[in-house]
Design a protein that fits this description.
This protein is α+β, with helices and mostly antiparallel strands. The protein has one domain. Helices cover 47% and strands 20% of the residues. The strands form two sheets. It has a two-stranded antiparallel ribbon. It has a two-stranded antiparallel sheet with strand order 2-3. A hairpin with a 5-residue loop joins β2 and β3. The N and C termini lie far apart (46 Å). Keywords: Signal.
Length: 83
């Protein structure tokens, strides 16, 4: 049974670290554009040029982390439910 307790403790520590990360830095890099805000492409000559604006992050290059999104939803639900 000690391995089960250790596994649970490891999961709790990982969740606490992720919660601290979401608190300290609520925005992460967009996975589609890599944080550029646009798609990098090549022109006919092979030079790298700026492409279209990223649709996922709308050109900001950042996204809201999943944990922060869940926190925002929970606080909004609580705020609207206690009026």
């Amino acid at each position: 049974m000690p391995s089960l307790a250790a596994a649970i403790a490891l999961i709790v520590i990982a969740a606490a670290c992720y919660a601290a990360l979401c608190t300290a830095s609520p925005l992460g890099v967009c996975r589609r554009c890599g944080g550029f805000g646009f798609k990098v492409r090549q022109n006919r000559r092979g030079r790298i040029v700026r492409g279209r604006e990223c649709r996922r992050c709308r050109g900001y290059g950042q996204r809201v982390r999943v944990g922060r999104h869940l926190y925002n939803v929970a606080t909004r639900l609580h705020r609207e439910g206690t009026r």
